[in-house]
Amino acid sequence: MIDLDLPGATISRHVYGHFAEHLGRCVYGGFWVGEDSPLPHVRGIRSDVVAALRALQVPNLRWPGGCFADDYHWRDGIGPRDQRPRMVNSHWGDVVEDNAFGTHEFMDLCEMLGADPYVSGNIGSGSVAEMSDWVEYLTRADESPMAALRRANGRDEPWRVPFWGLGNEAWGCGGNLRAEQFASLARQYATYSRNHGGNALYRIAAGANESDLHWTETLMRSFDDLAADPAEPARPFQAVSLHYYTMSGSWGDKGDATGFSTDEWYTTMARAHRIEELLTRHSTVMDRYDPHRKVGLVVDEWGTWWNVEKGTNPGFLYQQNTLRDALVASVHLDAFHRHAERVVMANIAQTVNVLQAMILTDPDTGALVLTPTYHVFAMNTGHHDAAALAVHLRGVETRTVDGTELPLVSASASVKGDTALVSLSNLDADSDRTVVLDLRGRDVVGHEARVLTAPALDAHNTPGRLDAVAPTAHDGVRPHPRGLEIDLPAHAYVTVRLGLR
After folding, report:
1. Closest-CA residue to 299 (of 329, 254, 269)
2. For 356-405, what is each residue's pLDDT tens digit?
3. Catalytic positions, please?
């Protein structure tokens, strides 16, 4: 049941954000092919990758990491490329890179995509002065030292950089800090990450891993008084992050991306569904200190993490992307929609050739492959900046998985003007379903549906079969006395766009 006339919180388009780390072939061989590449490019940035991502209306892009961010010193990535020092990427493959893709190249990419940059600053091995200088270099317009350096490197006008990360996974690769240590550092670094001119930073402190509520509570206690004045913004930073990855096995043996069993399918779906619990628990802790909900929750790493594909560098985290990954994405996005009052941004990991990627590029043929996950994001653009609608599910079957109950249908909805979008996932590996949409409050004057599914649970796209998993028009929609009746094929994702008056 959906009350079309009772809009809730706005679903920020930024929950459809992306992540590009210096990891494997995400940046080098994904976005960046270099100015000598035979592949079509603009200033070394691959043109078909940009075009595909522009079609998704990518709202923001996080860079340079990830774990890499706390080893990255931004001055090594500016100036003439042939004079930039090399560095060892010790986290991801222990490879040497030449810093050909640095600050100017990233900002150029963001401008091509029409995406807001989300820059992750180095707290782990950097300094307060280094981070402060980077903000000044990017965003200051006058004759300050860093603005002058930027001009000397070819960029006259400052960039707009709305999102600024204060470290990454400070509990692990970002310094192995305790929560109390990091909370003090986050306040210090936030203070010196200054607003210059009209550029107001939205500072995001590195937050918890999965269910670490102590980390979230420690950060919330470190804010200035959040309860006093609803009109006063949160200080000294404005958001905290959360990381959660989905797998069917353990960290040591995460499960394979293809060739998995039906039991592994359900384990994966149950673990994806756990994001609902995590958002609820972390939000509850935040509500205790922040009753006006000034502080944003940013899920800036999420997605599936499988064993790497055989024959690839284990440090490059290259994995295939199947229909299962697409439904993991839909389950997460439904949860983000339901928590729109608190979840202000999210970044799937990662955009190209790494983990749950939107795009895979073939290193031998140069072919570009759009993944099933890409298609879920494309089918959901109507949710961007729309008002969430509560979806009341009745009579949904569940399946017991590892002692927990997994609902076999996931759903969310939103409205913007005279259009509503309803997203429906059938997580049942074998059985089709029929769902009645009890639509109330406004008249429905038209509908259009699309479906994403395939015969096999591990169906995926390849250079030889680009559309093995691709959305098609869905004719399984019929009028019903309460609204509409929708056929949901087994293991399928369906969106229904409603015309309203």
Report:
1. 329
2. 999 999 999 999 999 999 999 999 999 999 999 999 999 999 999 999 99
3. 169, 301
